[in-house]
Amino acid sequence: MNPTSVIDPKASIGKGTIIGNACYIGSNVIIGENNRIASHVVIDGHTTIGDNNTIDDHTVLGTAPQDNKTTSDKVGLYIGNNNTIGSRVFITAGTEHGGMMTRIGDHNQMRSGVHIGHDVQLGSHCLMAEDAALGGHVIAGDYVSFGSDTAVHQFVEIGSYACLTEGAALTQDLPPYCTAEGNRAKITRLHQEVLEKHFSAEAQRSIQKAYTGLFSERSPKENAQNALEKETAEMLQPFYRFIVDSKRGVPFKRKTNVN
């Protein structure tokens, strides 16, 4: 441990974890094995961090949520394994009315300046580019890409394999497989790059056909409800279900949905 850092003796630090200069580690923090923590990092509150994470300088993790209604000191932050967290990243704890816990999965990459608000539930294998920001209570699935300077409104849900392009501001729910862009963000196409990486050619054709059917003629919710009653394909069920269950609606403009 670095002698210039302040590490509460009650904190739990796993084998092989390296902590840099001028860090602060609070009493209720649990850090797993083989993590690399750079200088001037603050980790506080009821924060649990798994194994093999890299945390860059001037990052703040697990501090009190920016929410005036929370009074509990038991709220916390959970971060999984094999995440890369850049410099000046800010991730707060959860709130009493939001499940008590902000959760980050595994194998995520958060570049410099990223902000993740209270009660966010971020899946695994996600990429958050520079200065991307998630408001409180956002839920995002796996393999989601956030371009630089993107902003996501509180209580928004984002499906797995979706993408927000650079500078997009999202205020509605973004279904799986879809790309949204602009301010306010609208769905413009499928997230083709990630589909090619993770799905067979046949599956991609099925997703493309479903996408075309959803964003033409009637409303996407009506189309999704009709399709859900007939569809059995495993990769399409969550696509339709997401739209049917969306509380904020999906942001599409029919004339721009051309792949």
How would you summarize the topology of this molecule?
Layout (H helix, E strand, L loop, with lengths): L5 E2 L4 E2 L4 E2 L4 E2 L4 E2 L4 E2 L4 E2 L2 E4 L4 E2 L4 E4 L12 E4 L4 E2 L4 E3 L8 E4 L4 E2 L4 E2 L4 E2 L4 E2 L4 E2 L4 E2 L4 E2 L4 E2 L4 E2 L4 E2 L4 E2 L7 E4 L4 E5 L1 H7 L2 H14 L5 H9 L8 H9 L14
Parallel strand pairs: 1-4, 2-5, 3-6, 4-7, 5-8, 6-9, 7-10, 8-11, 9-12, 10-13, 11-14, 12-15, 13-16, 14-17, 15-18, 16-19, 17-20, 18-21, 19-22, 20-23, 21-24, 22-25, 24-26
Antiparallel strand pairs: 26-27
Helix pairs in contact: 3-4
Brief summary of the model shown:
This protein has 259 residues and is α/β, with parallel strands linked by helices.
How is this structure best described in words?
This protein has 259 residues and is α/β, with parallel strands linked by helices. It has two domains: 6-137, 3 Solenoid (UDP N-Acetylglucosamine Acyltransferase, domain 1); 195-252, Up-down Bundle (Udp N-acetylglucosamine O-acyltransferase, Domain 2), CATH 1.20.1180. It is 15% helix and 26% strand. Helix 3 (220-228) crosses helix 4 (237-245). The radius of gyration is 20 Å and the shape is elongated. The model has no long low-confidence stretch (mean pLDDT 93).
